Amino acid sequence: MTSTEDRLLGPDQVRARVAEQLTRSRARSEALTGAVDEDDLVRQHSKLMSPLVWDLAHIGNQEELWLVRDVGGREPVRSDIDELYDAFQHPRADRPALPLLPPAEARGYVREVRDKVFDVLERVPLEGRRLVDQGFAFGMIVQHEQQHDETMLATHQLRVGAPVLHAPDPAPATAPAAREVLVPAGEFTMGTTTEPWALDNERPAFRTHVEAYYIDTVPVSNGDYLAFIDAGGYDDPRWWSEPGWAYRQHAKLTAPRFWSRDGDGWARTRFGVVEPVPHDEPVVHVCFHEAAAYAKWAGKRLPTEPEWEKAARHDPATGRSRRFPWGDEDPGPEHANLGQRHLRPAPVGSYPRGESPLGVRQLMGDVWEWLDSDLQPYPGFAAFPYREYSEVFFGGDYKMLRGGSFGTDASAVRGTFRNWDHPIRRQIFAGFRCARDVPAAEAR
Questions:
Q1: Structural domain boundaries in the chain
Q2: Is residue 64 within 8 Å of 129, Cβ to Cβ?
Q3: How confident is the model over 171-229, as pLDDT tens digits?
Q4: Quick check: 276 pLDDT over 60?
Q5: Nearest residue to 85 via CA among 66, 67, 111, 59
Q6: Are 289 and 423 in contact, with CB atoms under 8 Å apart?
Q7: C-alpha closest to that of 403 among 390, 419, 423, 426
Q8: Are 362 and 348 in contact (CB under 8 A)?
Q9: What's the rounded Cα separation, in Å, for the pair 21 and 422?
Q10: Hey, do 4-158 and 168-444 end up sharing a CATH topology, with the first three levels equal?
């Protein structure tokens, strides 16, 4: 794919694409919920997460609301459960006390909804209104299911017990020659107006100026982060912001989540497996405050959101912004560690075929990257198709995350995709890379 026109599909092509994506996302949902017994499905493994059975039925309920009732104009399948699976009505910590559908009933419900959705997909015109043009509503639901699949994967990481998920390890890597690269000052196009399944907070495209800066070519590794720990970084308030230091003391942080002392070294628990911390992988399960403290200790800082997107998308040779760091084609296994193909980040320096024109690697996949930007709307933002996807979160206590993780599906991330979370969150698959200003003497 090399242009907007190339990405616009005819109705039959849209139907085929939607059917494939719906089928693939459901296979993943079934694998994640089928890997554990019913007791694990209904149990809350952390107050931060819902029971897996809630996620499953919520996936079906959102699909029913948007595709069966709205797009298809069909009668409700189960209107009596709408309130139970409204994410805004019930905090995650309270969901186990709700009269949730038991596992067998939840599975039957999502199957019935999916059957009706395929009938709607076959019959409804995929043009004539914005909600269905290029299959937008179907794409929104595909992304929603894949996002909950990543949430369920994070629940598996929090689960206590023998391993139930398995995947091959990534291949070894060779790091790029340069540790950091200069991104020259100038304007670039941020966001999108043309990506068919882009969500409202990614829109519209606009031009913005970014001053020159340096950015690391790879994410910060476990080995890098261990140096911060060994230097007493967790015990020195000089490196922490005021809220960061307060949270570090309150939560008694001493290392990334799921790490524990193992003699003179460190071990981590990863999906039920206890193993030595691999020094060559990107650090993961750190919160924004930990990432910012490390960056300050290292004499650097976290990138801003415009800096991250310019490093990921801007092509200096053409002046245009790409869909992905490597170009406009959809992600393949040669480009990035996405889609739960592996149950861990790939070593730093992996995926040279996925690097940006400036030589920055692993901007997509492996770990979500914390950025020093708050969630704000783009100029000209308009909520679509509902305020609760983005608008209600603007201006809150949220920091930006970009690029996806090893648990993010390719359908649910792109160069413009925006994610956000509270700066204290550590259960998510988040890491970071550093940036720094260009010294004044060098800028002259």
A1: 4-158, 168-444
A2: no
A3: 998 888 899 999 999 999 999 999 999 999 999 999 999 999 999 999 999 999 999 99
A4: yes
A5: 59
A6: yes
A7: 419
A8: yes
A9: 30
A10: no
3-state secondary structure of 127: coil
The pLDDT assigned to 103 comes to: 98
C-alpha of 381 from chain center: 21
Say which residue the tokens 């800082």 belong to: 301
Q: Which residues of 36-69 are buried (b: 16+ CB within 10 A; e: fewer)?
A: beeebbbbbbeeebbbbbbbbbbbbbbbbbbbbb
Q: Is the pTM of this model over 0.85?
A: yes
Instruction: Tell me 426's DSSP state.
Output: -
CB 345 within 8 Å of CB 325: no
pLDDT tens digits, one per residue of 333-367 = 999 999 999 999 999 999 999 999 999 999 999 99
- How is residue 257 written in tokens? 């989540």
Tell me what pLDDT residue 442 has. Answer: 79
pLDDT at 14: 96
| Placement of tokens 């996405």 in the chain | 338
Name the H helices within 256-329. Answer: 288-297, 305-313
Give me the pLDDT at residue 7, please.
66
Mean pLDDT, the chain, whole residue set: 96
- 434 CB-near residues (< 8 Å, 6+ apart): 215, 216, 220, 294, 295, 298, 300, 301, 302, 303
d(CA 291, CA 294): 5
Q: Is the CB of residue 405 less than 8 Å from the CB of residue 369?
A: no
* Nearest C-alpha neighbor of 355 from the set 186, 189, 176: 176
| 3, pLDDT greater than 70 | no
CATH-assigned architecture of domain 168-444: Alpha-Beta Complex (3.90)
Query: What number of other Cβ atoms are within 10 A of residue 9's Cβ?
Result: 16
Single out the residue of 273, 443, 432 nearest to residue 343, CA to CA. Answer: 273
- Mapped onto helix, strand or coil, the DSSP state of residue 306 is helix
Q: Measured between alpha carbons, how far apart are the two ends of the chain, in Å?
A: 40
Say whether domain 4-158 belongs to CATH 1.20.120. Answer: yes
Q: Is the peptide bond before 316 cis (omega within 30 degrees of 0)?
A: no
Tokens representing 132 are 């269905």
Question: Backbone phi, then psi, for 233, in 5-degree steps?
Answer: -60, -35
Residue bearing tokens 């999906």 = 271
Length of the chain: 444
